[in-house]
Specification:
By secondary structure, the chain is mainly alpha-helical. 54% of the residues lie in helices and 6% in strands. The chain is globular.
């Protein structure tokens, strides 16, 4: 099964206010009933603060 994709990330973080921190991203994803693998990816991000959704997407999907 394929891992999370950018559309799933966008849905998981729907309603997120930026700038934000990693803890808030995880909480928002859980409250939006995101896939467990996506929540785990967010929890394991090295970066702790994010200025916008593009920055989150780059952190989650970087090679």
């Amino acid at each position: 099964m394929a891992g999370p994709n950018p559309i799933e990330l966008q849905k998981a973080l729907s309603g997120m206010d930026y700038p934000t921190d990693k803890k808030s991203l995880v909480e928002r994803a859980r409250s939006n009933h995101a896939d467990g693998k996506l929540v785990e990816k967010l929890e394991n991000l090295r970066q702790d603060s994010f200025d916008g959704p593009n920055e989150v997407q780059k952190a989650v999907f970087k090679g």
